[in-house]
Amino acid sequence: MERKLIALDLDGTTLNAKTQISAKTKSVLTKAKEAGHIVSIVTGRPNRMATSFYHELKLTGPMINFNGALGYIPGKNWEHEYQATFPKKITFDILANKEKWGIKVIAAEGKNLLLSDVADNTVDGFFLANLTQEHVLNKQNLTTDPTAMTMLVDNQNKASIVQKLNEHFGHKITVGVWGGPNPVLELAPKNINKAYGVDFLAKTYHIDRRNIIAFGDEHNDEEMLKFAGLGVAMQNGTEHIKQIADDVTALDNDHDGLANYLEKKLHL
């Protein structure tokens, strides 16, 4: 069998509802690596919230974070590392309009960057629950262009905020809207998405697109699933993701859907 690049979304896909990797998933992914396939995490999570899973799966290659905006090998200086950013002026402009637009929390992030304008623990781990002076989002502390911005907004103003962000900054950024219960918006550099990251991995490993298998469950996985030779939606995925995918797992993320699918597909 030809060598495959297996691109894994984390939340709702590789991770179960308790945000854990099951023993079965670990076992199957280990077998896939031993069979010569490449296993890579491709997540919307910042690197700070993904490296523990990277180490748990004993991965050694590059990881893609921030929905394609960062590609790097944890703990290593790697010559091919990249980080896409957008102008920090956009962050300052949004901060200035925060009250007027109905935004509650604004965070700016990068590989070694995490600043937030106010402390908040609404979304577990995504915003800073405690703010020290050096982590406050302001002009003094934000001296480099960010890779991503995350915003907690008023639910009823969500659509109008998205519209304003697109009107003002749409030529430089892409606005993503989280699924799930929290009204969170995510800003990424223009034309950067998970497919960008997977394309980078494929070129790095010299793997043809038809030999890419990608797994996902949410809107931010769409480009990646379309780009991959085999884009697989999780049983627990959104209806839209299931419709655009090439295939759907028989089981959900709480019943080893990904592991069972890969085991059969790759004869592990």
Concise summary:
The chain contains 10 helices and 13 strands. It has 268 residues and is an alpha/beta fold.
Task: List the topology elements.
Elements (H helix, E strand, L loop, with lengths): L4 E4 L1 H5 L8 H12 L3 E4 L9 H6 L6 E3 L4 E3 L9 E2 L4 H9 L1 H4 L1 E8 L2 E4 L31 E6 L4 H12 L3 E5 L6 E6 L4 H12 L6 E5 L5 H6 L2 E4 L5 H6 L2 E2 L8 H9 L3
Parallel strand pairs: 1-2, 1-11, 11-12, 12-13
Antiparallel strand pairs: 3-4, 4-5, 6-7, 6-8, 8-10, 9-10
Helix pairs in contact: 2-10
Account of the protein in words:
It comes from Ligilactobacillus ruminis. InterPro entries: Cof, HAD-like_sf, HAD-SF_hydro_IIB, HAD_sf. This is Cof-type HAD-IIB family hydrolase. By secondary structure, this protein is of the alpha/beta class. It folds into two domains: 5-83 and 192-265, HAD superfamily/HAD-like (Rossmann fold, 3-Layer(aba) Sandwich); 88-189, Hypothetical Protein, Haloacid Dehalogenase-like Hydrolase, Chain: A, domain 2 (2-Layer Sandwich). Helix content is 30%, strand content 21%. The protein contains ten helices and 13 strands. The strands form three sheets. It has a five-stranded parallel beta sheet with strand order 2-1-11-12-13, sandwiched between helices. A five-stranded antiparallel beta sheet has the order 7-6-8-10-9. β9 and β10 (184-189) form a beta hairpin. The radius of gyration is 18 Å and the shape is globular.
